[in-house]
Model the fold of this input.
Amino acid sequence: MCNPIDLAGIGIGPFNLSLAAISEKNQNLKTHFFDQKPDFLWHSEISFKDSDMQTSFLKDLVTGIDPTSPYSFLNYLVKNGLFHSFMNTGRTVVTRKEFELYCQWVTRQMPQKLSFNSKIESLKYDGDLFTIETDKEKYKSKHICIGTGVSPRIPEFSRKYLSKNFFHAKSKEISSLNLEGKRLAIIGGGQTGVEIFRNALKGKWGKATNITLVSSRPNLEPLDESPFTNEYFTPNYVENFYDIKQEVKEKIVNYQRLSSDGNTPTYLQDLYNDLYFMQNIEKSEINFKILPYRRFKEVIDTNDYYTLQLMNSFDGNSELIKADIVILCTGFENKIPTLIEPIQELIDFDPYKRFKINKDFSIMWDGHDKNKIFAQNFSRYGHGISEPQTSLMAWRSAVITNSVSNEDIYELNNFVPNFLTYETQR
Ligand SMILES: Cc1cc2nc3c(=O)[nH]c(=O)nc-3n(C[C@H](O)[C@H](O)[C@H](O)COP(=O)(O)OP(=O)(O)OC[C@H]3O[C@@H](n4cnc5c(N)ncnc54)[C@H](O)[C@@H]3O)c2cc1C
Done:
């Protein structure tokens, strides 16, 4: 075993990769990050040719806090000879595939501090240091940062039907999907749902006979990207939000949902145009339908196909649809990773079994004064709606870097005020 390090990162998604890049500014800090996957892969099962980021390429791993970092998206463009060509595309957002390529390029710039194919299998705490163990390595670290990401959310009642014909979009089954001559039901009208709907209509997985998109929302709701709404994704807003009462936070975050979980407006426009062409010009034989206001209630029959029961809250009726293939686009959830079980008793959870998170993104637990456990992407109801997004990841990485370094490596108090003032004026 090597000498103890200062910070071990569990998971190498964009958030911990950002931390690996940002924390490098403190050259005295020894860090190491681990991921179970063989390489940096970003939700690749559901990354299609037409899947774009919902955030500007300037909101990359580092730029928001350190545009001089060698790990910026712009540096990726320049170092790979892409800058001029990229500028000619006129894009402000990039495809999710290119964001993944950019992150993979970043991982290749710092191989000494990243271990892939390294699933953390056990975490121990001896009152002084953490020991984290993979099947190959053992590290001791003073602090850790959990960046294990989100897991597919699957309605409990439907779990027993999971199979190669009934699956969550983010699963391996999608790679062998064959829709030729089949009826497809997509459950969920968020961005993943509409992307699968559009790709299925275009015949990506063979020509389906019926394609039905079911959504509990009243419409295919657009992402709210207007400037005042975007103030939710600023450090000033997070600072203000953090200090308000918990019950108010829950209501506010639920109200703000569409600033984070809505559909990309240009994507909806493209989809609408495709549907217009298919129905009115091409006179496509595919029988497609979009069913808003429908809550998926039950699978009531499974012979050679599935009969799904939906509750229509627009007119209050129940209805049945038949499908050979069902793809759940029912979103994602934060699960506390099981690997923390050995220290669970020492952690202060909220009544919903979520981490309670300090302002510096460390969790509240008994060993906190000596050893910090940071958690990224676990504080939607603590720090706010920006938590699961990339918008503030560079800033959050800087907050964590300052905290773990015990000094201000980054200047974090120089942001101009927002235009919306939430605090009471005295
Ligand atoms: C399809 C999709 C598209 C999105 N698009 C955008 C967007 O355009 N803009 C935006 O701002 N946000 C977007 N988001 C939201 C957010 O940016 C992503 O979810 C992002 O991936 C979160 O990063 P993360 O680092 O928390 O987790 P993840 O990217 O999920 O990475 C977590 C990593 O931890 C690893 N891991 C887990 N457990 C262990 C273990 N025990 N040992 C080792 N490794 C482990 C996993 O293998 C994984 O690689 C999107 C989310 C999804 C699902």
About this structure: Residues 265-281 form the longest helix (17 residues). The first strand starts at residue 5 and ends at 10.
